[in-house]
Every structure is written in C-alpha cells, then in structure tokens.
Amino acid sequence: xxxxxxxxxxxxxxxxxxxxxxxxxxxxxxxxxxxxxxxxxxxxxxxxxxxxxxxxxxxxxxxxxxxxxxxxxxxxxxxxxxxxxxxxxxxxxxxxxxxxxxxxxxxxxxxxxxxxxxxxxxxxxxxxxxxxxxxxxxxxxxxxxxxxxxxxxxxxxxxxxxxxxxxxxxxxxxxxxxxxxxxxxxxxxxxxxxxxxxxxxxxxxxxxxxxxxxxxxxxxxxxxxxxxxxxxxxxxxxxxxxxxxxxxxxxxxxxxxxxxxxxxxxxxxxxxxxxxxxxxxxxxxxxxxxxxxxxxxxxx
Length: 300
Fold this sequence. Notes:
300 residues; seven-stranded mixed β-sheet; 11 helices; 39% helix; two-stranded antiparallel sheet; alpha/beta; 9 strands
C-alpha cells in the first residue's frame, strides 16, 4: 500500500501523462492545420486589402439590380460549399483565394472572382481572409455596382424565392442591411461569446474577443441587447448612404474582435436603425444537440 504522499505523486504524474497524450493525439489529428491566433493581420488591414483588389470589374457587361455572392478562403480540403446552390435568377459571384475552389463553383454557374491572398493552413487566418468580402463587399467593383446585394454563407442553402420579399422590406424601411435574428440566443452579448468557445477556432481568440468586449463596454456599449443576429445571410442596399460606414466599421471590428463576426455585429447593431432584423431561420440542433422547448434563460 502506497503512502498518501506517494499516491498524490502518482496521481499528479498520471494527470501529466494524460495531458501529454491528449496534446499528442490532437496534434496528430490537426496536422499543420491547427487553429492559431498567432498571425500577422497587417496584410488584412483595409488600406492593404484595397491595394490587392482590382479597381475594374471582372465582369463589366453584367447588368442586374440584384446579385448574390459568397466567399471562401483556405485549402480545398476545408471547402464547405452546398452543392444545392446552383446559380439562378440573378448573377452569383464567388470570391476566393483558391483557384481550385473557383473552378468548382464556376461549374454551378457562379462567377469566380480571385482574391490575391496566399492560401493559409491556419483556419483562423483563412476565416479572417474570408471576412473581407463578407463584411466589405463594396471593395469589389463587381459587387458594388449592384444596388441589392445578397450575401450567403457557402455552407447555407440559398432561399432564392424569399429574396424579393426581403429586398422590398429593406426598401420600405429605408435601411441599409437586413439580417436574420439568432434562432437560439437572445438578451445578452455574452451568450454569443460563450457559444463561440465551444469551437477551437474561436476559442484560440478568446482573449482577443474579451479585450474587444471590454473596449466596447468602456466606450459605453452595454452587454444587454434587444437583438442578436446570425450573420450567415444578409441583404444590403448598396446605394444606401450608410452602407459603406456599416461595412467598414464591421470589418475593422472583426480585425479587433476576431473571426466570430456575430459578436462584433452584436455591438455594431446596437441602436442602429439602418440594420433591420429578419425573423430567425428555424434551427433543430445546436452544438450537436436538439434544441429543447425549455432551453433556459437567454436561449430561444
């Protein structure tokens, strides 16, 4: 029988071994694609990005009041495009730094637009690159010239039939942007922050997010809010006088906050009449579990 002191030493060594084993197998699973917040964001600053985007459209002969676009940056092995999203009704553009991805979406009728940035194996850096088109589409001449511009996450199926009604509502309310409310959280920005920590690529930026939130609070922004958003979709009026300000503020906040752009958007949308909310899209599961009828405070 071991003495209590020896037992504690054995338990301590066992914990160390278990931690090393977890790190080893996690590294084995990630390979060279482990998420990291250790990157140089200077090439992604607005002024730097502007220099990498051509000043002339790739498709100068296209004339349509409304268009759809999406984006993806990173290695082909991480591509998440929904194969149901064949282009229809309006021009569809796809922005990427990956030539293979651009060839794939072209077969679905999308118009490829190359983004002059290196392909990164770091999923956090790749996500930051994709935020350029998502948050600041006015930087791209092909996108800017359409009055109504629909963004849809490449993983999400586009509901084309619903777009005219959303466009009409945007015009009626004189707003710059329409975004769906979150289907599962409400009341406080901290719900969005804690949600993000369940995913590795967000968790590695947790301190960045916390510093951003503290800065927003010091500037007078509250955590308690009357609406939270799911930013996988938005529809913009590109002729609205406030749309560029909203785009660039959101993009700058993403650089400061991190790739959980719903967190920075929650602060952007506070007391912002130029952002209107759409009903939440139904969601059956959250973090792999079914959403219950009584999810608790702060949850929908």
